[in-house]
Amino acid sequence: MKGNLAALAAGALFALGLVISGMTRPEKVIGFLNVREWDASLALVMGGAIGVHAVLLRLIGRRSAPVFAPAFKPAPAELIGGRLLAGSTIFGIGWGLAGYCPGPAIVAAGGLNVKAVVFVAAMTVGMYVYRKLHAKP
Amino acid sequence: MHNFTPVPALIGGVLIGLAASLVLLTHGRRAGISGLWAGLFHPRARDRTFRASFLAGLVVAGLASRLFAPELLGQAQGGLGRMLVAGLLVGYGTQLGGGCTSGHGVCGISHFELRSVVATLTFILAGVLTVLALRALS
Questions:
Q1: How confident is the model over B46-73, as pLDDT tens digits?
Q2: What is the spatial distance between Cα B100 and Cα B58, in angstroms, rounded to a whole number?
Q3: pTM of structure
Q4: HSE toward the beta carbon, residue B1, CA cutoff 13 A
Q5: N or C: which end of chain A has fewer CB within 10 A?
């Protein structure tokens, strides 16, 4: 129960960061991707998040285990190949088309923005398609 | 530079970094939102209550924003057809590429993982070219 409350609080805090920084407004994201009239705000959002998290994760890593789970989840395999490049390219095209990536889209959909609701529904279908095409037996 | 808002961007970024750290401290995992969302609909996914709780936090905060500061949610350009195509690409692409702006861009880079740096540069480049193409066409 406490673990779920902590997760809920973390989700709300994450969303608050997205909303305050302007990342739930697709025009801010498109402004970052538009190199002709560049809005660098997104770079500072990422920089701020990485600066804080890069330090804290190393302090947290000194613990033998997380508070509400038996162990830290191991890092993903360091594979750089066609899947990483193709997947990130496809994601980037969708990101540039709508100005939404998954986090801000889910927050805006929670705020009952119709376009964000449609985006999140389609995103869920896209994930389902991936699983059907690449399902491991 | 157009519409640059450095102070809210930095404050929001710090909050996102704190939230990702809270997830690591309490549950020992990364706050990669595309992966958490995909797992919610995966029949064999573990930690479904953790995923649902974290994502509920996103949704509830979105609803609160709508009630108290609706202008902060903004409005996407383009119609529902564009949202449909974009959503499909983002859903499929994040699963193939193993993450999105949060999982690769924030968590992976914070762990100094080269694959996340490569993924992040790749989706930013693809996004830049897409916006350039959209502007050229319109």
A1: 789 999 999 999 999 999 999 999 999 9
A2: 16
A3: 0.97
A4: 7
A5: C
